[in-house]
Write a sequence for this structure.
């Protein structure tokens, strides 16, 4: 078996490595931190993403490289590509690293997007706020994740909104670029997690309904209970994107749905938090299919196994017992130290019917005192 290298050693790398093990694929991860949680399950090369000595050591130990972290500097990606195979390719990575190029590509492909404007100075922001209106969101073009690097311009801020947004993020303009987006008062959010093989085999898991709190994913539900036409449209968008980028591996397309319309928010050129439920809730998980795709192996079925709900654990791990007591309860502790707002683990509840899933979820929510986290999912399952 070829050896797999992962740039980034967080929980995504850790779950990829756990999926690679039964395939007999040896994995090495590169991460700037010696504490990176993938290091508990695979050997870690400790070094920065632009540290040539670390990249050389990493390249010497792997045949194919992929990403847990997409913001690896382009120069390092290029250097690696001249030494080992790397998937996804440079075009996909460059596009997905930049919210502006990502949105332009979506539009070119006929995938609707919220109103947006490139912001390169204070005046450009003032003009864009006049044009797009309030509410809107100012975001860094690059390097944002989990809602970081964003400022919401609220209607009650009135004429001071642009100034307040510039005060919050203007200092980033040279480093990351900025983009203003119209705020979409969506009915719900969904994502399509998809995989494409080197020979163009394209598959998606059941589109997933997602709930965020303060810009961070809180819960996911699959299947999402979508109208079949809407579901087909969402999958069509993901397919066009994959083909346009000649994509190899797993990616996620995040969408807002409003009045039956789908608007693309962003894509992630990697396995995705909203696909964690596939570990127990699908015939082949996103992690296994990503490993298969980048190594050139046949893809596995993405069929769902009943109904699944994933709950993210932020800050610190709760008591596992109430989840483990459920018939389809599964626990994932990433082995990270507790820190405010940090993703430290997740649970997946799986059941054969929506009714059984709701019962499990309600029991877990009550036992862990997580009523707010489970309430919207229960409402969807029972509504
Ligand atoms: P991640 O990569 O972790 O998904 P991120 O930092 O890239 O997050 P976004 O996906 O852009 O951030 O935004 C996080 C969440 O904030 C979205 O899932 C959505 O709930 C909300 N949000 C972002 N942009 C908009 C928008 N234009 N309209 C309405 N809500 C938005
Ligand atoms: Mg993002
Ligand atoms: Mg997002």
């Amino acid at each position: 078996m070829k050896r797999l290298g992962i740039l980034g050693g967080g929980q995504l790398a850790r779950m990829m490595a756990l999926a690679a093990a039964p395939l007999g694929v040896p994995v090495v991860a590169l991460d700037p931190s010696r504490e990176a949680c993938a290091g508990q399950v695979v050997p870690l090369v400790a070094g920065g993403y632009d540290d040539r000595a670390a990249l050389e050591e990493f390249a010497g130990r792997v045949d194919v490289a992929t990403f847990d972290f997409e913001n690896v500097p382009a120069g390092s990606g290029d250097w690696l590509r001249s030494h080992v195979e790397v998937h996804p390719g440079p075009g996909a990575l460059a596009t997905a690293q930049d919210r502006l190029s990502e949105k332009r590509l979506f539009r070119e492909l006929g995938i609707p997007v919220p109103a947006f404007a490139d912001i390169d100075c204070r005046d450009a922001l003032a003009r864009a706020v006049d044009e797009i209106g309030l509410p809107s969101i100012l975001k860094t073009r690059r390097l944002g994740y989990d809602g970081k690097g964003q400022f919401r311009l609220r209607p009650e801020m009135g004429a001071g909104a642009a100034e307040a947004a510039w005060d919050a993020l203007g200092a980033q303009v040279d480093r990351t670029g900025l983009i203003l987006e119209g705020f979409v008062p969506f009915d719900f959010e969904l994502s399509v997690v998809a995989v494409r093989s080197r020979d163009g085999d394209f598959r998606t898991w059941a589109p997933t309904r997602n709930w965020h709190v303060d810009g961070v994913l809180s819960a996911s539900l699959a299947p999402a209970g979508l109208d079949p036409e809407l579901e087909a449209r969402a999958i069509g968008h993901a397919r066009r994107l994959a083909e346009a980028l000649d994509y190899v591996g797993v990616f996620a397309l995040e969408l807002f749905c409003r009045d039956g319309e789908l608007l693309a928010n962003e894509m992630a050129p990697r396995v995705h938090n909203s696909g964690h439920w596939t570990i127990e809730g699908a015939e082949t998980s996103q992690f296994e299919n990503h490993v298969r795709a980048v190594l050139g192996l046949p893809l596995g079925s993405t069929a769902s196994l009943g109904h699944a709900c994933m709950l993210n654990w932020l800050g610190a791990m709760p008591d596992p017992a109430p989840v483990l007591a459920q018939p389809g309860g599964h626990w994932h502790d990433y082995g990270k130290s507790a820190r405010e707002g940090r993703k430290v683990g997740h649970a997946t509840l799986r059941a054969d019917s929506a009714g059984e899933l709701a019962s499990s979820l309600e029991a877990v929510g009550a036992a862990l005192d997580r009523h707010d986290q489970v309430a919207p999912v229960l409402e969807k399952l029972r509504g």
Notes: Residues 307 and 351 are 5 Å apart (CA to CA).
